[in-house]
């Protein structure tokens, strides 16, 4: 079980209540499980450990809603923040800059050939 909390989540009392409720849910699950202890690690995330759904959507040229659906359906491993947003582990997709670079190269190639004569012009 994982939970990501960002600064803006801590600013609203309602969201803090959701965080506390989620923590209590984890504690309740512990009481019915075979585990003896619950370990909670709190640490700041400084590196790009997670992507937002919009970043994945842009990289793969799909809608943000589609990425959220994939998260809900379990097609993408993701964690939902107490505020309801999805965070996707960066390790799952690697370096998105390579995907973006590939798309840019493809667009450049396509733009070079967009003004080329069509097949019907060669048949004349």
From TrEMBL:
Organism listed in the record: Hydrogenispora ethanolica
Pfam family, one: HTH_17
Superkingdom field: Bacteria
Record InterPro entries: DNA-bd_dom_put_sf (IPR009061), HTH_17 (IPR041657)
Protein name in the entry: Excisionase family DNA binding protein
Helix-turn-helix domain location: 50-91
